[in-house]
Specification:
Layout lengths: L20 H15 L10 H9 L4 H11 L1 E3 L19 E8 L21 E9 L6 E5 L5 E4 L14 E4 L2 H19 L5 E6 H11 L2 E5 L3 E3 L4 E3 L2 E5 L1 H9 L9 H19 L2 H4 L2 H13 L1 E4 L4 H10 L8 E5 L2 E4 L2 E7 L2 H10 L26 E6 L6 H10 L4 E6 L8 E5 L4 H9 L5 E4 L6 E6 L36 E3 L7
Parallel strand pairs: 1-12, 2-7, 4-13, 16-17, 16-20, 18-19
Antiparallel strand pairs: 2-3, 3-4, 5-6, 7-12, 8-11, 9-10, 13-21, 14-15, 18-20
Helix pairs in contact: 1-3, 1-10, 2-9, 2-10, 3-9, 5-6, 5-9
Length: 507
């Protein structure tokens, strides 16, 4: 997976946006009615934090104040062609959280100075995936030093990852703000990013202070001159400034590895989740309101992620146990051109696929049971073109025959071998529901929007593609023909190591 070694460091300004105060007030009234139906529960987590904060000093005032704190940015016009978004009232959500390394507002240079080229980097990048049934959450850490393909010009909707350049991951934010990071991630993974959140150093520090500190556990002593952080090995309860130093320290701990810093950050996040779900916090609405005020005051989000949407999402997570929140790092390996950088390993494809399909992470323990969504378009109403890009003779004919037996209007053809792996279902936006029926016939299919296809759904079969299975709304009862042609197998991916949020913070 070694990308070509090219560079492009031309800068672009981030895009500005606005939010509507009037809409915030309307959302506030609707949210108050919703909140009155949901009492605080012991394991309510963030939902409990929100409800408690709204009960402090007048819910209407609290809501309008918190909603008005959030800075919103519209990046939709630069994203270009995007992956398919899951549909329905109950659907998976993907939220990209970026930690900006700007020091603005800190009043100190203890954590270093802003970047030489100006602007901020996103030194912490987390993709939060919430399952459709809200019974599982995955938090994926993307190493800041990852060398990946990226759009050459993020401000141009037509500029894509495919015809782009190689760029270090955290430079995407510097070159084009959160929109560039979203665009790059979607182009590399095929995952639709529903929302994004940017939090800066100052916001992180004040949030930790509002929680009353967070407990950490360091296996080695820390003496970091840049942040002034000094800790003996063992457990400590850190306040905001110390906590910021703890999650930022890198050069003086474990050889300066960013990957080891990510592990320390994941343990810190586990501690926050455990802290936020303690009953004692829910009994301190003043502290909870202060936490939410600190959080919203340091946030930049997409235009659709207001405080009302956050409250709805938080409420939907009230049944999520801490043990079903898992942290994972994108599998990676040394970047050949620079041993101080990394590139994504083959196993990363398995990780992204599990998120696209809303499946459990590879090798992860889970209690989540996958269920097929209701299919709304009959196979008899769907025209399917099956294309063989695996280079295996007869593969497309075999699988199109298995589709035709179920009522699909299927045809077969050959494409350029090696252009994709597994099963890719391409479709126009207007044919999304039809494409869902087609994808249901291939358990591990990836759906990709292609507006040139009109009403035809195209299935591309690459190496590693599985065989057609029966769909729940098939036409007729004739059994599927037994397959005689195999697509071949790709190299097996490495195991993916996960960490549960309820794990001991010293582990």
């Amino acid at each position: 997976m070694t990308p070509p070694h090219t560079v492009d460091e031309s800068g672009h300004d981030a895009v500005d946006g606005q939010h509507s105060t009037r809409r915030g007030r309307l959302e506030a009234r609707r949210q108050l009615r919703r909140d009155s139906r949901h009492p605080l529960r012991r394991r309510a987590g963030i939902a409990g934090l929100v409800a408690a904060a709204l009960a402090t000093g007048g819910a209407g005032f609290a809501y309008v104040s918190l909603n008005g704190n959030i800075n919103r940015v519209d990046v939709s016009h630069i994203l270009g062609v995007r992956p398919s978004q899951s549909t329905g009232d109950e659907r998976a959500l993907n939220i990209l959280v970026m930690g900006s390394d700007t020091r603005e507002g800190l009043g100190t240079t203890e954590f270093g100075k802003d970047t030489i080229e100006g602007g901020a980097h996103s030194d912490t990048n987390l993709l939060v995936h919430l399952s459709a049934d809200r019974q599982a959450a995955s938090v994926v850490s993307i190493p800041r030093d990852s060398m990946t393909m990226a759009p050459r010009d993020c401000t141009d909707p037509a500029s894509t990852v495919e015809d782009g350049i190689v760029r270090q991951w955290n430079y995407n934010f510097n070159k084009g703000g959160p929109g560039c990071t979203v665009k790059t991630l979607e182009g590399l993974t095929g995952i639709y990013v529903d929302h994004f959140v940017v939090v800066d150093f100052r916001g992180f520090q004040t949030m930790v202070d509002a929680l009353g500190g967070v407990e950490v556990c360091t296996p080695v002593a820390i003496d970091d001159k840049d942040s002034g952080l000094q800790l003996d090995a063992g457990r400590h309860r850190l306040q905001g400034k110390q906590a910021l130093g703890y999650v930022r320290v890198r050069k003086t701990v474990t050889g300066g590895s960013d990957l080891n810093r990510i592990k320390r950050q994941q343990a810190f996040m586990s501690s926050i989740v455990q802290e936020a779900t303690k009953t004692s916090l829910l009994l301190r609405p003043d502290r909870l309101y202060n936490f939410l005020e600190a959080a919203t005051g340091s946030m930049t989000t997409d235009q659709d992620l207001g405080f009302g949407t956050m409250t709805d999402v938080a409420s939907s997570l009230k049944g999520l146990g801490v043990g079903n929140v898992q942290f994972v790092t994108v599998p990676n390996e040394v970047y050949p051109q620079d041993p101080n950088r990394v590139q994504w390993a083959d196993a990363a494809d398995e990780l992204w696929e599990s998120i696209r399909l809303d499946k459990p992470l590879p090798g992860a323990e889970t209690t989540k049971e996958a269920e097929d969504e209701t299919l709304t378009v009959s196979p008899a109403d769907i025209v399917v073109r099956v294309v063989n890009v695996a280079g295996v003779p007869g593969l497309a004919r075999q699988e199109s025959a298995a589709l035709a037996v179920q009522g699909f209007q299927a045809s077969a053809g050959d494409g350029e071998a090696g252009t994709s792996t597994g099963v890719v279902v391409r479709h126009s936006t207007s044919a999304t529901e039809a494409a869902r029926t087609v994808a249901a016939a291939f358990p591990k299919a990836t759906m990709v929007v292609d507006e040139t296809l009109d009403d035809v759904v195209e299935v591309r079969l690459g190496v590693g593609a599985g065989h057609v299975r029966e769909v729940s709304n098939r036409v007729g009862a004739e059994p599927l023909p037994a397959p005689t042609v195999e697509s071949g197998t790709s190299a097996p991916g490495a195991s993916i190591e996960t960490r549960k949020a309820d794990a001991d913070i010293c582990a």
